[in-house]
Amino acid sequence: MDRHGRLRNPDSDSDSSMISSLVVSTSDDEPALVSVQSNLSARKVTQSLSITSSGTSDEDDVDESDESVPNSDSEEDQLVSDNEVAEDDAESDVAVVGDSIGTESLSVPSDALVQALKPLLFHFPLRNLPFLRRNLRIAFKGSFMQTTTSIQAPHEVILRVLLRATSDQSRWSFSLNTWSCPLCNLLGELESREMLETHLHWHHSEVNVFWLKENDSEWRLILSLPEPSASHIEHAIAPNFRYAFIKPKEIPDSEYQDVLANQTLTSLTLEDEDGQTNISIPLSPTTAVPDTPASGDVSISIAEPSISSPSGDVRHRRGRTSLAVEPRLLLRYPTPPPADNPFGPAAQYPYLPATSDDGKITVKYSCRAGGPYLFDLLDLLPLDEFGVLSWLVLDREAEIFEDEEIGDELKVMHALWGRWIMLNRRWFIQDFLVGTIDFVDKYWRMIHRAAGWSALRYWLTMLMVNKYLQANEVAHVLTHYEEKTGMKNWYNPRGW
């Protein structure tokens, strides 16, 4: 018996759990062919049943003499209204999230991916922004008026987006039909890919962006989300946004008591973006400005995204208000290699003693014959993630070190790849490019320290020769590594 009170044929291969809707025709002339759609394992499964008015099912593997669906006295158990059929058809047309890029991904974002997204999202409603969105969109699009950009019709765009968290390598994919930002809705639908790329570079600079062109109307966008810090409040403002904050200077208690007598209450009126609502907000007591200048000037500090010289603060004074520009230090990159070998390893002989980046592991000397080698720096990496198989990792690395046909830098790359592929082979097979990026994200510091850019390029070339990567993907991975190590700031007097 099914849920409608009808008998089912036990010999039939059809499963009632896979059927979401069923239409039965009451006409005696010809059977009605209906299409039954259901969603199974994030893919659309379509089944076709031909049901006659006598109530028999004409499936291929069911005997015509068997009566799988007998007649019922109630028409409500057999007939499904046209509205329900329309609703089922509408539900079947919804794109399935998580199956649009060709790699295995979760149907919903994982917890690690959600935590990585939180610092990148706005923490206030769009209608309460400190600026009008229409003005921002006009100004942003106006900056592209003088440049020639290839504008493509919205209906011809297929943008396949893949979000990946660097913390646990979880992924979530979806598709867009317009040049829209996957992380925010500040600018709405843009007119070209160049606009979207510029928006991601300006307003989401903390996200690593990779573009891959599938064909003229189809692009692939990979967004690598950084690991969330303990407190993501300091990352709420993008580093390229100028913002101001007021720092009142200390006032003596005697003058402060005299100023309190002149306090007045003010209010702030906020107008809605559409100009329909006015909100009056009372403010805290403010101090009336005296006629004579007070000794407690107000210092307005504007944080600049550019890098200031380390000589000190640059102050511009105008009247009784001082404008202090605080220098923003460079993001601390590792020490670059020597200038005579910029593409080699950063570590120089003698390589030991050395300490790991987190300061937990220290290697003081080498037990190898001939003194310390670059290969000894691998001892700075922990083996906790391998568990009881740590001996297998060390045994394989010993075999790699004994090979005399390759250089020390390539031995380091071989050992690092062996460690990563041992635990992440499944991720690499799903998507070769994303897996290679995961490898660089995990070991880029050791690659910079003990291998260098040229050794990484050689290893990526080997992957390309073995048909794992394409030439443009190799260039993308190298660019990603250069951004990690800050190669554009090497040997720059302002940066180092």
Based on Cα principal axes, name the global outline: elongated
Query: Considering DSSP H and I runs of 4 or more, what fraction of the residues is helical?
Result: 25-40%
End-to-end Cα distance: 78 Å
* Rg: 32 Å
In DSSP terms (H or I, runs of 4 or more residues), the helix count works out at 10
Strand order of the largest sheet: 4-3-8-7
Report the mean per-residue pLDDT as an integer: 67
Structural class: alpha+beta
Biased composition (Low complexity): 15-26
Biased composition (Acidic residues): 57-92
Biased composition (Basic and acidic residues): 1-11
Region (Disordered): 1-30, 45-93
Overall description:
It is a single chain. With about 500 residues, the protein is of the alpha+beta class. It has 4 domains: about 15-90, no CATH class; about 110-235, no CATH class; about 245-325, no CATH class; about 355-490, no CATH class. It is built from 10 helices and 18 strands. The strands form 7 sheets. A 4-stranded mixed beta sheet has the order 4-3-8-7. Strands 9-14-16-15 form a 4-stranded mixed beta sheet, with no helix packed on it. Strand 17 and strand 18 (about 360-365) form a beta hairpin. Helix 8 (about 430-450) packs across helix 10 (about 470-485). It is elongated. The termini are far apart.
